[in-house]
Task: inverse folding
């Protein structure tokens, strides 16, 4: 097995290190974050959205350092509202290109041929093509001093999901809506389910 020590990682070529360390945490979720600000609508791909807690219903994601203009960050600070829209197979390529460094006045919806949609008078745009989308309220921005990134914490105001994805116990069947996963910074994957196991109890372990 090949190994990379802390010192070796530090000495790696910048792009190689970026690709390696962006891959080691495994498959990540693929979401497009929609916002609206004084310069118009914005849509950008994020692979760091995580579940923070169910009650209250909270999600969070990592925002890169604000050393360059971050339109998503600027817009959500202004309006306190944003949307999280899952990425399915048929829009994966368009979703990827929302990461290009578009000027604030350019709408990634237009540039990447994706469709904005407004639901229930919510201020931020949703992605019409998305089959699972959330209206979010910005709750907290936690600064990570180590590398100047930020953990953006939002509460869920509304969930919209295609009915075929809903199962009896509330868990979503993400395969039924062709949700993709991301590895590294540019690979998009179909996901195959390998198991659906019951709640793990020490008195009910299977015979391995
Ligand atoms: C696959 C992929 C995942 C990304 N994930 C994140 C992320 O989790 N956090 C982040 O700050 N930027 C992430 N980016 C970069 C943003 O998409 C990119 O900086 C984008 O231009 C931000 O747009 P904005 O300036 O309009 O907000 C990712 C890019 C790609 C291609």
Result:
């Amino acid at each position: 097995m090949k190994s990379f020590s802390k010192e070796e990682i530090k000495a790696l070529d910048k792009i190689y290190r970026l690709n390696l360390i962006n891959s080691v945490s495994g498959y990540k979720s693929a979401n497009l974050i929609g916002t609206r600000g004084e310069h118009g609508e914005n849509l950008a791909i994020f692979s760091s959205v995580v579940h923070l807690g169910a009650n209250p219903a909270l999600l969070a994601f990592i925002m890169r350092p604000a050393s360059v203009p971050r339109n998503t960050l600027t817009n959500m600070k202004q309006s306190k509202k944003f949307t999280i829209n899952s990425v399915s197979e048929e829009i994966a390529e368009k979703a990827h290109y929302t990461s290009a460094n578009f000027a604030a006045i350019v709408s990634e919806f237009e540039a990447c041929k994706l469709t904005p949609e407004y639901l229930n008078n919510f201020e931020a745009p949703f992605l019409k093509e998305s089959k699972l989308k959330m209206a979010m309220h910005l709750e907290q921005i936690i600064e990570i001093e180590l590398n100047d990134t930020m953990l953006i914490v939002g509460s869920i105001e509304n969930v919209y999901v295609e009915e075929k994805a809903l199962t009896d116990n509330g868990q979503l069947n993400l395969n039924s809506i062709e949700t993709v996963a991301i590895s590294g910074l540019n690979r998009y994957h179909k996901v195959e389910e390998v198991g659906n196991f019951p709640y793990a109890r020490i008195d009910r372990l299977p015979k391995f």
In short: The chain has five helices and twelve strands. The mean pLDDT is 97.
